[in-house]
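SAMPLE LOG
Freezer: B-3
Tube label: C17
Construct: single chain, 173 aa
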Amino acid sequence: MPEKNIDFGRFGARGIKGSDAVARKLDELAGGIATPVTAKRGWMARLHYLTKSTQTLKAAQDAGLTVTHRTLKAWLEGKRRPSKTSLERIDQAYRTVRRHNVARHLLRRLNRDGRGTRVEIHPLNQSQVPQQLQRVVEYRTMKGLDAAWQDTIVDLGSQWGQYEYVTNVGFAA
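STRUCTURE (predicted):
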């Protein structure tokens, strides 16, 4: 049962949430703007990315960047500087939209009629868990993300949420 590891790590297991591992990997693969959001160049670059089309602007708004068109225009023209809270929202919206765009690209790569990139799921680390409390959690790989993906996700979470926490999720060529 996913989301039922209320007291994760109680017996010594180590790992991170699978969703966080995927997000980290997508951030790593996404690359992106290296300049920090606190520098004018950094937040301007993020705003340009988020406003390059109506689709990305809508995605940015959905991701939490909720400012008026007038404020956005003033920022882009350099007439005003976003507040600290707004900078955090700009950065979060940028990461969310960037992850989404990279995920779409990866989805095409992963599918390729089952010949795509391999997804690797490394289970949680149980080396510190007493042997009698350890579970058998296998290293998993999958190729392609066609219609069977939904069945795979159900299967992955079927054994007590064993992939809710992992040590790593990777995308291998």
